[in-house]
């Protein structure tokens, strides 16, 4: 089975996405170390902005764009659709983590946080977007069920 992202006219700079993922990893690590659900609620908000709007209100995206320019990182354009899907999954994951922290289910929240940390580090360090793979599998699943 070959994985491929559907082609769309909307593109996004992968260098910026990787910096965003690194910032998400740092915030998630702070949540694990300090049981800081406020930071996780911030991630819910930021992921939601990136997943459901086209506005440039995402704080992490704004910081990442400035960092990419500061380090003169060359733009590498990639399809936006799987990245938006991955941001949606990140928002849902962050919401579950925040709820588990608020309900004092520390162990479950920590386990989910470690999983999210691993996914964010895979994206930032190795350009492996787990959400994009899920998106590709989802597209194959939908396509096969429509036939």
Short descriptors:
mainly alpha; two-stranded antiparallel ribbon; 147 residues; transmembrane; membrane; DUF4395 domain-containing protein; transmembrane helix
Tell me the series of helices and strands, N- to C-terminal. Answer: EHHHEHHH
Uncertain stretches of 5 or more adjacent residues: none
| Biggest sheet layout | 2 strands, antiparallel
Sheet-strand content, in percent, reads under 5%
What would you call the structural class? mainly alpha
Mean pLDDT: 90
Number of helices: 6
**β-strand number:** 2
**What share of the residues lie within helices?**
over 70%
* Measured distance between first and last alpha carbons: 17 Å
Q: Tell the overall outline.
A: globular
Global Rg? 16 Å
Give me the side-by-side strand order of the main sheet.
Answer: 1-2
- Count of all domains: 1
Pfam families: DUF4395
Organism: Pedobacter fastidiosus
Transmembrane segments: 20-45, 85-105, 111-138
Keywords: Membrane, Transmembrane, Transmembrane helix
Chain-wise SSE layout:
Layout: E1 11-13, H1 14-34, H2 37-52, H3 59-70, E2 77-79, H4 80-102, H5 106-126, H6 130-146
Antiparallel strand pairs: 1-2
Provide a descriptive summary of the structure in words.
The protein contains 6 helices and 2 strands. With about 150 residues, it is mainly alpha-helical. It has one domain. Helix 2 packs antiparallel against helix 4. The radius of gyration is 16 Å and the shape is globular. The model has no long low-confidence stretch (mean pLDDT about 90).
Describe the structure in brief:
The protein is mainly α and about 150 residues long.
């Amino acid at each position: 089975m070959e994985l491929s992202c559907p082609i769309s006219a909307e593109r996004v700079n992968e260098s910026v996405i990787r910096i965003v993922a690194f910032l998400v990893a740092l915030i998630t690590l702070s949540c694990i170390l300090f049981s800081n659900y406020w930071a996780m609620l911030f991630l819910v908000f930021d992921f939601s902005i990136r997943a459901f709007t086209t506005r440039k209100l995402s704080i992490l995206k704004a910081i990442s764009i400035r960092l990419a320019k500061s380090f003169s990182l060359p733009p590498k354009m990639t399809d936006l659709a799987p990245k938006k899907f991955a941001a949606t999954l990140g928002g849902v994951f962050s919401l579950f983590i925040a709820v588990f922290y608020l309900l004092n289910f520390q162990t479950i929240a920590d386990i989910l946080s470690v999983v999210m940390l691993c996914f964010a580090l895979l994206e930032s360090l190795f350009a492996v977007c787990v959400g994009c793979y899920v998106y590709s599998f989802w597209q194959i699943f939908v396509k096969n069920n429509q036939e």
